[in-house]
């Protein structure tokens, strides 16, 4: 997740609060500014609206207990419309008991609408439809005006389209409610035939168009801005009207202004779906908002982005989102509104369904990746220095200054205590100012799922050991190797030990080399905290474990030298030699600052060194 270059996010419940309310309605050509006021339209319209809302729904209304508010269940859109119906005076249980449902055509994300056929007590058959306003409107042949009279819609279709666009531009979700009558003798009586029968969806009569407000979550705009500054592009993929999607995207900061809405920046799912595979790969990186999209459109977008080298994170909550969640590099399902299928297909579950939490995941992902790099830099410095010192000393003098027990203690500092100290570094704002690592352009994305978030290092642009890390490592290793080899070969003369016995002089010299080497690692642990920053002490008080481990290592080193000489083959040091060890270690701090002034190329060293080899191979094959 720390390497994500783009996040494809749902709108409802992730970028918005998922608290929907009907705030505007059109009944006929009349705009109802106070949607709960049913005195502005006739009893005929009111009766049909009550029936359409109560019957054509997957939600339910439960009577209040103890004088409390009425409880409404269902999807957020269903709940908003049911609440509106209750305010209009709808009696949910009575209306549902007055008619018999013949066939239900459930809402799905492909059709963007749902309907049913029902039989009234007088044997009259009515069909009710509800769904995406512009799609339902396209199937309407007429509309009921506020007086309950049927009018032809041909001359007024443009009016209704403009009304939909106006509401959508104000980030309202537009839902149309329509009905039609149907002949009883055309309804199959046989159960098998009835199950195959399609509920008629043509020649509809428009009853109302409602505008539903779902406000943006507090903090979403800031979270989107953080992602943008971090080089992570946020894309909104929603089933809403393209104008609604565009308005919400501007409200959330995904689109800065109308100037950002160039070709392909805002696109409909159908348009994207109809492109060829090559065209989708070209268009996908430009997309900021996809409206009227189906789960399959989201899957196609993810596939196109991954083929283009993006590391894709996808949010989803429905069962139909499972393929896209599975296909993405990181699948993020919603803990509150998400289905079990979506959760099973995802890598991470966002417990509060909040986009700001997705940004926290990016932040922590980058922190984990950075902490691994910090530890590797620290570990390699220790290994290189210890290896060079012992090998050079063994070859030239036949003796090693660091014995096996001492190296075991160094390994304990490096592998256990060092890892614990550096791995627990908390995320910082600096991490969100870097560009994401990204995927190699010459590597095909891995279509198989790997457990957790771990991908092969070869999948990414930047190698795990960066040029900055190599620079820091070389500077510190060269310093440590130079100083400690000088002490090893010329230590007796420097410390005036020529008059001491050979055995004591060697032990004292080796003890100083060992002590100085450990102090170098203790102080270099601070340098490893901030590989690319001058101030290595920034935020150090926030990581008490780091301070505790460094302090414990320091104390243990004193105990080893002063009291455990028999086990470590060391002798006690006087205060001047302790001071020398301390100074040798502390010099690593200013040296690291000077080293960070050395510029490094952006191209990884591995690529620079491998180019001559590649040219040689190419020349031979030619």
UniProtKB/TrEMBL annotation:
Keyword annotations from UniProtKB, A to Z: ATP-binding, Calcium, Calcium transport, Calmodulin-binding, Ion transport, Magnesium, Membrane, Metal-binding, Nucleotide-binding, Transmembrane, Transmembrane helix, Transport
The protein, known as: Calcium-transporting ATPase
Catalytic reaction annotation: Ca(2+)(in) + ATP + H2O = Ca(2+)(out) + ADP + phosphate + H(+)
Class of this enzyme: translocase
GO molecular function, one term: calmodulin binding
Functional description taken from the UniProt entry: Catalyzes the hydrolysis of ATP coupled with the transport of calcium.
NCBIfam families for this protein: ATPase-IIB_Ca, ATPase_P-type
Entry similarity comment: Belongs to the cation transport ATPase (P-type) (TC 3.A.3) family. Type IIB subfamily.
Cellular component aspect of the GO annotation: plasma membrane
Membrane-spanning ranges: 380-398, 404-424, 477-495, 545-569, 575-598
PROSITE patterns: ATPASE_E1_E2
Major site of localization recorded for this protein: membrane
Pfam families xrefs: Cation_ATPase, Cation_ATPase_C
């Amino acid at each position: 997740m720390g390497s994500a270059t783009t996040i494809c996010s749902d709108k409802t419940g992730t970028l918005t609060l998922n608290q929907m309310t009907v705030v505007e309605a059109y009944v006929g050509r009349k705009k109802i500014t106070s949607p709960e006021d049913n005195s502005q339209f006739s009893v005929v319209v009111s009766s049909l609206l009550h029936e359409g809302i109560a019957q054509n729904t997957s939600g339910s209304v439960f009577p209040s207990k103890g004088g409390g508010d009425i409880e409404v269940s269902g999807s957020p859109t269903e709940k908003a419309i049911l609440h509106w119906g209750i305010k209009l005076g709808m009696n949910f249980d009575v209306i549902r008991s007055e008619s018999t449902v013949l066939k239900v055509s459930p809402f799905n994300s492909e059709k963007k609408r749902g309907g049913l056929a029902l039989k009234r007590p007088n044997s009259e058959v009515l069909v009710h439809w509800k769904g995406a306003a512009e799609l339902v409107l396209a199937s309407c042949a007429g509309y009921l005006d506020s007086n309950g009279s049927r009018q032809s819609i041909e001359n007024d279709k443009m009016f209704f389209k403009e009304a939909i666009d106006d509401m959508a531009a104000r980030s309202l979700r537009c839902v149309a409610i329509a009905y039609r009558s149907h002949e009883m003798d055309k309804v199959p009586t046989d159960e098998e035939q009835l199950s195959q029968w399609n509920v008629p969806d043509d020649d509809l009569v428009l009853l109302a168009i409602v505008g539903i407000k779902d406000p943006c979550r507090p903090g979403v705009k800031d979270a989107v801005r953080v992602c943008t500054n971090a080089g992570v592009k946020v894309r909104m993929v929603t089933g809403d009207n393209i104008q609604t999607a565009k308005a919400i995207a501007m409200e959330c900061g995904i689109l800065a202004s109308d100037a950002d809405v160039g070709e392909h920046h805002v696109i409909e799912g159908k348009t994207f779906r109809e492109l060829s595979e090559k065209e989708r790969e070209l268009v996908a990186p430009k997309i900021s908002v996809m409206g009227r999209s189906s789960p399959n459109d989201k899957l196609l977008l993810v596939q196109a982005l991954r083929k283009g080298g993006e590391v894709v994170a996808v949010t989803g909550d429905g069962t139909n989102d499972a393929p896209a969640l599975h296909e993405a590099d990181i699948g993020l399902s919603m803990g509150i509104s998400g289905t079990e299928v979506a959760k099973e297909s995802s890598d991470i579950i966002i417990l509060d369904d909040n986009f700001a939490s997705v940004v926290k995941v990016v932040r922590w992902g980058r922190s984990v990746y950075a902490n691994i790099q910090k530890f590797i830099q620290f570990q390699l410095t220790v290994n290189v220095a210890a290896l060079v010192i012992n090998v050079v000393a063994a070859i030239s003098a036949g003796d090693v200054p660091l014995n096996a027990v001492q190296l075991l203690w160094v390994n304990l500092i490096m592998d256990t205590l060092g890892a614990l100290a550096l791995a627990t570094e908390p995320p910082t704002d600096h991490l969100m100012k870097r560009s994401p690592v990204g995927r190699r352009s010459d590597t095909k994305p891995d279509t198989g799922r790997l457990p957790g978030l771990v991908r092969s290092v070869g999948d990414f642009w930047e190698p795990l050991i960066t040029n900055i890390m190599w620079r820091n490592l070389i500077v510190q290793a060269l310093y440590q190797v130079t100083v400690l080899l000088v002490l090893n070969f010329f230590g007796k003369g420097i410390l005036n030990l020529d008059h001491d016995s050979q055995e004591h002089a060697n032990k004292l010299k080796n003890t100083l080399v060992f002590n100085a080497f450990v102090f170098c690692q203790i102080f270099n642990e601070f340098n490893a905290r901030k590989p690319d920053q001058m101030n290595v002490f920034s935020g150090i008080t926030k990581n008490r474990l780091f301070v505790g481990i460094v302090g414990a290592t320091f104390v243990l080193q004193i105990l080893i030298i002063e009291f455990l000489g028999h086990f470590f083959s060391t002798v006690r040091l006087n205060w001047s030699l302790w001071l020398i060890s301390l100074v040798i270690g502390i010099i690593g701090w200013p040296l690291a600052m000077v080293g960070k002034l050395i510029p490094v190329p952006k191209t990884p060293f591995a690529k620079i060194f491998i180019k001559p080899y590649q040219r040689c191979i190419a020349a031979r094959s030619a």
